[in-house]
Every structure is written in structure tokens, then in C-alpha cells.
């Protein structure tokens, strides 16, 4: 069983909707990540939080807004998305903060997003 | 920008065959991780190698890290249908401070 929990598992939304993806981990990890993954492709990094502060934003459009309320929770707020944003959104965590040695990632099962 | 070239992209084999997946870069990484992802799930870490020349075994899977820490390979002996999935190599450290560099992935299908 994964120790990173993502909800919801599936989400369908229209282009004018506002929704949120949620991620939770209780492993004491200090770094948390959002990745976007298209079918049969590797995950693409979107955001990294280190010690609850945003440390990396991979030039993600502002219609995606991350939030880290505390060390165990990570949210991704979605607004005015486009159909091409349909993908699997993966949350991950790692023990250490970002550094020269990047920690091993523990992924959640993902949230499958469909934008109509 | 660091790149990891993973090959082959697709592999379709019969149960019992052996296979090798390669991950190559012109950059040095401080660590190299291998993940497996099954349909509808997130990637799961298989192994991390950190020392040049390191070899690690996980049952029928053998992982190698090149001496110069620029390349890695995954060898599966006597593949089984349960090995089917997307295999990802990911490099850590180097100039990509704070994030992993993923290879393009290898989609492995093992037919019974």
C-alpha cells in the first residue's frame, strides 16, 4: 500500500470549474512534489515544496496553484483548465529536502484528471 | 540541461526471456534510481544506486551503475507477465539541483 494518499482518484471538470487535488503523507518527509504525467510518458515535474516552502516552479501556468498547508499536506488548486491539461497528476514525497543528493520519491497513485 | 536517454522505448517479449534496459547520459549523477509503474498506479521505487560500478540485485532484477556514474542498466532474468509495466530511470544530483531527471521510460510487455 502506498503511504502517499491522493484524492480524488478521478476528476472530470469543465473549463470554467474550480477544483482541488489533495495529497497527504505521514512519513515525516520534508519535500513534496507535484508531477504531471501523460499516457506512456515519464512524469513531468511541476512544483517542489521543501520544508513547506515552494522551492521549484517549473514555469507552470497560473491556472495551477499549489499550496502546502503543513508538512503532511499538499494541494493543487485548478482553475480555468484546458482540455490539454487532462493527465494523471502525481504527488510524491521524499525524506530530505531538495539538495545535491535528491531523495528517493514515494509516489501516490495519482489523480486522473479529465478536462472537458 | 541534464538528459537521460533510456532505451529501448518499447519491449515486447515472451515469458522466460531475458532483457536489458539502458539509461545513458553525458552528465554525471550522484544517484540513479529505477522505478516501475503499473497501469493506473504511481511509480514505485525499485532501487537506488549511488556508487560508480555498483551492482544491486532484487530477485530476478539486476541493476548496474556505470563506473563514471553516467549510465545504468536494468537486467531482468526469466521475465514474467507480472513484470509488465513502465520502467523509468531517474538521475539525481548533478546540475539538476533538487530534482530528478527522468528517462523517457521503457514500456515492457511480457506475454504468457
Annotation, overall tally of beta strands of chain A: 11
Fraction in beta strands of chain A:
over 45%
Structural class of chain A: mainly beta
The chain-level mean pLDDT of chain A equals 91
| Average pLDDT figure of chain B | 93
Largest interface: A-B, 26 and 27 residues
Please report which band the strand proportion of chain B falls in: under 5%, 5-15%, 15-25%, 25-35%, 35-45% or over 45%.
over 45%
CA-CA gap between termini of chain A: 31 Å
Spatial extent as radius of gyration of chain A: 13 Å
Rough outline of chain B: globular
What's the Cα radius of gyration of chain B?
A: 13 Å
Order of helices and strands of chain B: EEEEEEEEEEE
Biggest sheet of chain A, in brief? Answer: 7 strands, mixed
Oligomeric nature of the chains: heterodimer
Amount of helix of chain B: under 10%
Shape of chain A: globular
Number of strands of chain B: 11
Low-confidence segments of chain B, given as residue ranges, are none
The secondary-structure class of chain B comes to mainly beta
Structure, explained:
The complex is a heterodimer of chains A (116) and B (112). Chain A has 116 residues and is an all-beta fold. Chain A has no helices and 11 strands. In chain A, strands 2, 4, 5, 6, 9, 10 and 11 form a 7-stranded mixed sheet that branches. Chain A has a 4-stranded antiparallel sheet with strand order 1-3-8-7, with no helix packed on it. Chain A is globular and about 35 Å long. Chain A starts with a strand and ends with a strand. The model of chain A has no long low-confidence stretch (mean pLDDT 91). With 112 residues, chain B is an all-beta fold. Chain B has strands at 5-7, 10-14, 19-24, 31-37, 44-49, 55-58, 61-65, 71-76, 85-92, 101-102, 106-111. In chain B, strand 6 and strand 7 (61-65) form a beta hairpin. Chain B is globular and about 40 Å long. Chain B starts with a strand and ends with a strand. Chains A and B meet through strand 5 and strand 10 of A and strand 4, strand 5 and strand 9 of B.
Amino acid at each position: 500500500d502506498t503511504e502517499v494518499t491522493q484524492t480524488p482518484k478521478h476528476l472530470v471538470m469543465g473549463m470554467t470549474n474550480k477544483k482541488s487535488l489533495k495529497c497527504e503523507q505521514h512519513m515525516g518527509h520534508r519535500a513534496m512534489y507535484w508531477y504531471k504525467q501523460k499516457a506512456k510518458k515519464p512524469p513531468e515535474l511541476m512544483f517542489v515544496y521543501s520544508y513547506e516552502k515552494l522551492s521549484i516552479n517549473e514555469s507552470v501556468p497560473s491556472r495551477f496553484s499549489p499550496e502546502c498547508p503543513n508538512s503532511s499536506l499538499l494541494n493543487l488548486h485548478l482553475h480555468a483548465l484546458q482540455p490539454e491539461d487532462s493527465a494523471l497528476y502525481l504527488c510524491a514525497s521524499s525524506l530530505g529536502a531538495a539538495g545535491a543528493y535528491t531523495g528517493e520519491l514515494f509516489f501516490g497513485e495519482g489523480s486522473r484528471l479529465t478536462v472537458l | 540541461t541534464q538528459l537521460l536517454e533510456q532505451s529501448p522505448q518499447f519491449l515486447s517479449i515472451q515469458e522466460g526471456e531475458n532483457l536489458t534496459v539502458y539509461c545513458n547520459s553525458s552528465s554525471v549523477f550522484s544517484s540513479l534510481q529505477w522505478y516501475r509503474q503499473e497501469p493506473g498506479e504511481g511509480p514505485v521505487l525499485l532501487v537506488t544506486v549511488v556508487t560508480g560500478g555498483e551492482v544491486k540485485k532484487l530477485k530476478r532484477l539486476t541493476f548496474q551503475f556505470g563506473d563514471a556514474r553516467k549510465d545504468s542498466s536494468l537486467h531482468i532474468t526469466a521475465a514474467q507477465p507480472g513484470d509488465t509495466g513502465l520502467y523509468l530511470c531517474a538521475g539525481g544530483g548533478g546540475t539538476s539541483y533538487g530534482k530528478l531527471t527522468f528517462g523517457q521510460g521503457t514500456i515492457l510487455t511480457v506475454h504468457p
